[in-house]
Amino acid sequence: MSVTPTPLANQLLIALPALADSNFARSVALICQHDADGAMGIVVNRPSEYTLGEVLGQMGLESGDESLRAQPVLAGGPVHPERGFVLHDGGMQWDSTMAITDHLFLTTSRDILEAMARGEGPENAIVALGCAGWGSGQLEHELTENDWLTAPADAELLFQLPLDARWQAAAGRIGVDFAHLADYAGHA
Q1: Are 15 and 115 in contact (CB under 8 A)?
Q2: What CA–CA distances, in Å, run from 37 to 14, 32, 50, 57, 133?
Q3: Residue 185: its pLDDT value, please?
Q4: For residue 156, what is the DSSP state?
Q5: Which of 33, 55, 132, 176 has the most crowded CB, counting CB atoms within 10 A?
Q6: Which residues cross the membrane (predicted)?
Q7: Are strands 79-88 and 148-152 parallel, antiparallel or unpaired?
Q8: How many angstroms separate the CA atoms of 153 and 139, rounded?
């Protein structure tokens, strides 16, 4: 599968402390697609109220893997909050998969969750409900308004770090320490 690079695909958007939008305050979003029509991404550091076991149960799927069932499902963004998105590595092709890079994919079809429940899914995966979307030129405007920082994505941040450490860690990847910013002073 050939990946057509886009300007911000596979970049992390890191909300600056002054960003007041409750959907994105202190968030980190992976941009999955970006072109002249806009951008789409998944917030990768905000848990939803669900575990993967609860979601699988709602779909009529069972898994004997306790750690898989306990995995938090993320609140991926305010767009299509009823729709599931699986961000994963591996080269397997599922029914509805978009390549972000040669090693990172976004799948929206049920078959990947069925495989995960059977223990046959990708090595690393996060499940999110909803996504983030920006219309044509909207994300570029928000970047010029200093709402976001950008940093390259990496597997450790996406799949290994605890959710509550991702915002500071993403900024740290580009040498930013939010504790030293005026808008962040006084926040724990």
Answers
A1: no
A2: 21, 13, 32, 36, 11
A3: 47
A4: I
A5: 132
A6: none
A7: unpaired
A8: 17
Q: Please tell me the distance from the alpha carbon of residue 29 to that of residue 120, in angstroms, as a whole number.
A: 27
- Evaluate if residue 181 carries a pLDDT over 80: no
Q: What is the Cβ-side half-sphere exposure of residue 44, based on CA atoms within 13 angstroms?
A: 34
Residue spans of beta strands (DSSP E) within 36-78: 38-43, 47-51, 72-75
Q: Hey, what are 125's tokens? A: 């995966």
- Side-chain-facing half-sphere of 36: CA atoms under 13 Å: 0
* The residue type at 61: L
- Residue 180 three-state SS: helix
**Which DSSP symbol is given to 153?**
-
CA distance between the termini of the chain: 44
Alpha-carbon span 86 to 90, nearest angstrom: 12
Judge contact between 10 and 101, C-beta under 8 A: yes
What pTM value is reported for the model?
0.91
Query: What DSSP state is assigned to residue 158?
Result: I
CA distances from 121 to 67, 83, 109, 175 (A): 14, 19, 13, 35
70-91 average pLDDT score? 95
Distance CA 88, CA 149 (A): 23
Tokens of 183: 């808008």
- Give the pLDDT of residue 188: 46
- Which tokens sit at 108? 């929206």
* Separation CA 125–CA 17 (nearest Å): 28
The owner of tokens 């009823």 is 82
